[in-house]
Amino acid sequence: MKKFVIFHYGFEMPTPEIMEDWSKWFASIGDKMVDPGSPLGPGREITPAGTKELPVDKQALTGYTVINAKDLDEAEKIAKSCPMITSVRVYEAMSM
Fold first, then answer.
1. Where are the domains of the chain?
2. Contact 69, 6 (CB under 8 A)
3. Where are the beta strands (DSSP E) in the chain?
4. pLDDT value at position 16?
5. What is the mean pLDDT of residues 77-96?
6. How is the beta sheet containing 87-92 ordered, strand by strand?
7. What is the pLDDT of residue 96?
8. Across residues 25-35, what is the average pLDDT?
9. Euclidean distance between CA atoms 95 and 13, whole angstroms
10. How far apart are CA 59 and CA 43, in angstroms?
11. Structurally, what CATH architecture does the domain formed by 2-40+53-88 represent?
12. What three-state secondary structure class fits 79?
């Protein structure tokens, strides 16, 4: 198994229905779950040109989840079932 990180984008105030959908999704991952991650709040982007505040909105990076999957195709299948707000991105976590 390989490790993959799913990045969640888009903020919407959680409702009981949204929370229930997330609970169901986490349960559906079962033993492939490595780290459920956590929600992300306000952030800053730091570049050589300076620092800027990052809003928490529909385009914001708002959380992550780490899973095990056989390959990127399986990781994508798991990510597609996520109760996403705007989108998710999946990356393989490479070994060092």
1. 2-40+53-88
2. no
3. 2-9, 33-35, 43-47, 50-54, 61-69, 87-92
4. 95
5. 94
6. 33-35, 61-69, 2-9, 87-92
7. 82
8. 96
9. 35
10. 13
11. 2-Layer Sandwich (3.30)
12. helix
Hunting for tokens 């079932």 — which residue is that?
Answer: 81
Q: Give me 93's structure tokens.
A: 């976590």
Q: For residues 45 and 67, give the distance between their C-alpha atoms in angstroms, rounded to a whole number.
A: 26
pTM assigned to the model:
0.91
- With b meaning 16 or more CB within 10 Å and e meaning fewer, what string describes 26-39? eeebeebbbeebee
Residue 17 has pLDDT above 90, yes or no: yes
For the chain, the C-alpha Rg in angstroms (whole number) is 14
| Dihedral sign of CA atoms 28, 10, 93, 38 in order | negative
Amino acid at the residue 2: K
Residues 6+ apart with CB under 8 A from 44: 51, 52, 53, 54
Of 96, 3, 14, 2, nearest to 63 by C-alpha is: 14
Q: Give yes or no for a contact between 10 and 60, defined as CB atoms under 8 angstroms apart.
A: yes
User: Please, are residues 10 and 59 in contact by the beta-carbon 8 Å criterion?
Assistant: yes
Compute the average pLDDT of residues 35-51. Answer: 95
